[in-house]
């Protein structure tokens, strides 16, 4: 009798462990910042800023499945862009074009939840996830460095095709939102007026892979 109880307990524990699914979901793609460009720029300045509006997008999420459709976890994403160009400057009160290079980074990190059909008996999977956390921005031009952070959010919708029991791949559409009310530039904090806030919103299109275990 005791042996039967031990076997039954072992089977129950094994089944429970099997049901506790983990998902690691990395993705790589391209993203476009959607905030409006400051008006009044010259053509050269507009082209320069345009180069910072799009760039590489990387993100990775880790989820624990709490029921057949709901998972909870954490999410990290990174957007990077750079631009080389010329902006108008003055030397001895004479206008000149000054070569400049700017590198931008936008990072997001925070808890997230995911709804998926990963447990359904089909190779065609989908998931929607949403995260709420900290979004940060770093921009560097020559020896000038600006940083700032605020509350941010991410929303993703993806189709995944199951190529093996544990690996899925497919396209993913992402939305990121966040706005900076102030920034620290070379150690000095500047508060922005309503029409000068730094919008960090972007749309991304990526190739995503899901690894389940």
UniProtKB/TrEMBL annotation:
Q: Which domain of life is it from?
A: Bacteria
Keyword presence, Signal: yes
Identify the keywords attached in UniProt to this record, alphabetized. Signal
So which residues are the signal peptide here?
A: 1-19
According to UniProt, the name of this protein is Outer membrane protein beta-barrel domain-containing protein
